[in-house]
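Pasting as-is:
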Amino acid sequence: MGGCAGRRLSDSEGEEANPAVRPPPQDRQGTHWKNAVGFWFLGLCNNFSYVVMLSAAHDILSHQRAPGNQSHVDPDPTPTSHNSSSRFDCNSVSTAAVLLADILPTLVIKLLAPLGLHLLPYSPRVLTSGVCAAGSFILVAFSHSVGISLCGVVLASISSGLGEVTFLSLTAFYPRAVISWWSSGTGGAGLLGALSYLGLTQAGLSPQHTLLSMLGIPALLLASYFLLLTSPGPQDPGGEGEADTAARQPLINSEAPEWKPGSSSHLSLQERWTVFKGLLCYIVPLVLVYFAEYFINQGLTSSEHREFAMATTCISDTLGISLSGLLALPLHDFLCQLS
């Protein structure tokens, strides 16, 4: 039953999937684990390039690879400090520049996604995310300047932002347990991404070869989506029994008709704004949490609003991280001027 989830959803938009007969219990159990593992890998792979770029921030800004030099390290091993009198190890540009390059494109994508991203089928979105992730590793690995490296970081940000909006929207068509698996995967990316870059470089591998060795991650993302995920089952989008569904109270009151995959594409701008206002009580605290962490997210809404809500609420972490990066730039310069 493996294959493209987006294609089986009629690429999320414009068509209704034909009702299917529920699989036998043993098959449903196997399907559950395939989807759970699939979303764990999607969470891991989607955030991996973002984490690696932050881990490589100091290398990106401290060194420029001269032509013919296979290392990202200058022939002169002595770093040039922004202020030689400072007690801090300073770059000429704050590493917050990498943070902003790694988060602002994601912020733009998440801000614009509710306006029209749903019109683009799922499959092209996932392919674009995978290609951008691979391109980010290649561009930074072979870069000769900080500017080109930052362009590679921007590609990683596009990949992460587009992927997060896409995969969180996709969870609306699967049992709600997959959200926990997705979140676990993104948490694993934070740990494995940082440790893999640090471990490989400390083991003697050059930053260039370290980044190139991570090209398997985008391939794993595409394989998880196209080969591992199974059909979400349109007759039971949430994957819940009648008793469980009745026990869940909507966080946003609505008298809307029965929900079908892709129905969020028919929401008017006024409806989208109404849903967004109802989500502010969840968005604002998340912004504060991620702002404090750098200087997770789910909208449960009666069911036709679920896909749109999942794609919208994920702006919380990105906005908090963006604000922290903006404030870190002047803070970096202030600290580096201290004697």
